[in-house]
């Protein structure tokens, strides 16, 4: 006589993880070419044959000086640009060539970051059950996620999801999806990969308007970040870094036009309102209050650690001021901004990586928050709990 068959509810309970999803490993990568902010305006106006647009060059110089950025990495170097001179003029139909270049380069860059994350994780790539890939630079199917799975030797049954055009909130969204997958599938190990290449949106300055393009050229850079997410870590191999205690997405009302992206024949066209730092500033604290109320955790803003997407220096300044943060609270975000610029959705993964490396003189906060912002305006919030190994580090 066998035992009574399990109910669907019992089967479902057994399928779920016991513990919360946790960040188990992080890897990052950048293209080898880098440029300092001091040299960028001369470079940009020279390679786009636009030296005569002196007012715009002065504006880009002012933005570079005020950006809080020292250097950025780019895939589209001078040699590649010489082979694709039409990229400098967005009225020309250059989209095909841009898609060719990014379809090849995005998975390669993501594979570099993911290989580092997998090496740190300590388990074979074949143990990855799910892949969530976010990019604004890929417009082809099969997509960059399939190529990445092949480059890494993932199992043929890996569950793939690709997110496109989430912009700067892409990393935050991908991590939230990974949390859901890990907590709802016992034993799941989710690889989150983000890779962003500005070559899809690079073009020369325009005499009429085009200030969004000048802003973009002053602050955006290329990079890739990868994270392994899983619940119920298998010791001693798996060492959790951050547990993901709560996640939410908020759309700021009436801000659909504040950040927009659209694919055009000449590449990706983007618009960024000068009001973005203020609009975010007005809504950040409400997201934090709601998140910590859900958890019933009493939080003083200065008692938390922060992994904030450094969309621009002015955004970090607004958040610092509105939350009344002590000096250095946003140090990880500012350091990543300084060394790499705004790498859109992937940046927040660099910030998490920086955060876990920072010295914790005299102990570190137990609770913290990751926030990323993108078109919508969308605010992705994840409340993090530092694993014990990190608090003592
Ligand atoms: C570093 C900035 C740009 C300047 O610093 P500042 O302290 O405001 O300094 P100033 O007030 O002196 O401003 C310098 C100049 O920058 C100009 N500026 C100030 N924001 C602006 C503005 N959104 N537009 C175009 N001029 C501006 C500003 O008008 C001014 O021009 P001028 O008076 O002629 O010197 C700062 O304003 C800042 O960090 N802004 C936040 C930028 C921001 O909104 N980032 C998040 C959204 S970005 C996004 O969604 C990306 C999409 C994306 C798209 C394509 C990709 O390839 C990749 C990604």
UniProtKB/TrEMBL annotation:
It holds the Pfam family Chal_sti_synt_C. GO terms for molecular function: acyltransferase activity, transferring groups other than amino-acyl groups. It comes from the Eukaryota. Residues 243-386 form the Chalcone/stilbene synthase C-terminal domain. Residues 9-233 form the Chalcone/stilbene synthase N-terminal domain. SUPFAM superfamilies: Thiolase-like (SSF53901). The keyword Transferase applies. Keywords: Acyltransferase, Transferase. GO terms for biological process: pollen wall assembly; polyketide biosynthetic process. The keyword Transferase applies. The active site is at residue 168. InterPro entries: Chalcone/stilbene_synt_C, Chalcone/stilbene_synt_N, Polyketide_synthase_type-III, Thiolase-like. Belongs to the thiolase-like superfamily. Chalcone/stilbene synthases family. This is Chalcone synthase. The gene is gb20883.
């Amino acid at each position: 006589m066998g035992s009574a068959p399990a109910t669907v509810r019992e089967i479902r309970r057994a399928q779920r993880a016991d513990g919360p999803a946790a960040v188990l490993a992080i890897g990052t990568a950048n293209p080898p070419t880098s440029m300092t902010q001091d040299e960028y305006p001369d470079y940009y106006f020279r390679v786009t044959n636009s030296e005569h647009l002196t007012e715009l060059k002065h504006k880009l110089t002012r933005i570079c000086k005020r950006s809080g950025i020292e250097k950025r990495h780019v895939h589209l170097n001078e040699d590649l640009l010489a082979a694709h001179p039409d990229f400098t003029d967005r009225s020309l139909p250059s989209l095909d060539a841009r898609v060719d270049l990014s379809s090849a380069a995005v998975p390669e860059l993501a594979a570099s970051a993911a290989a580092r994350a997998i090496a740190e994780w300590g388990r074979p790539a074949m143990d990855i059950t799910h892949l969530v890939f976010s990019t604004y630079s890929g417009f082809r199917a099969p997509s960059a996620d399939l190529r990445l799975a092949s480059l890494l030797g993932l199992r043929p049954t890996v569950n793939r999801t690709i997110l496109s055009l989430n912009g700067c909130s892409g990393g935050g969204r991908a991590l939230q999806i990974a949390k859901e997958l890990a907590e709802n599938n016992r034993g799941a190990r989710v690889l989150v990969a983000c890779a962003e290449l500005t070559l899809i949106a690079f073009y020369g300055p325009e005499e009429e308007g085009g200030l969004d393009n000048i802003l973009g050229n002053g602050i955006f850079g290329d990079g890739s970040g990868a994270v392994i997410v899983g619940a119920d870590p298998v010791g001693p191999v798996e060492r959790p870094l951050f547990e993901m205690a709560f996640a939410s997405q908020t759309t700021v009302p009436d801000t659909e036009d504040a950040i927009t992206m659209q694919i055009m024949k000449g590449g990706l066209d983007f618009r960024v309102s000068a009001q973005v730092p203020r609009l975010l500033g007005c809504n950040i604290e409400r997201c934090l209050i709601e998140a910590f109320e859900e958890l019933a955790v009493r939080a003083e803003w200065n008692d938390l650690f922060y992994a904030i997407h450094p969309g621009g220096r002015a955004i970090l300044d607004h958040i610092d001021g509105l939350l009344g943060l002590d000096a250095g609270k946003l140090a990880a975000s500012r350091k990543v901004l300084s060394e790499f610029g705004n790498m859109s959705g992937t940046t927040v993964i660099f910030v998490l990586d920086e955060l876990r490396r920072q010295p914790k003189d005299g102990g570190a906060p137990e609770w913290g928050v990751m926030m990323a912002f993108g078109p919508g305006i969308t605010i992705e919030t994840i409340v993090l709990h530092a694993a014990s190994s990190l608090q003592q580090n």
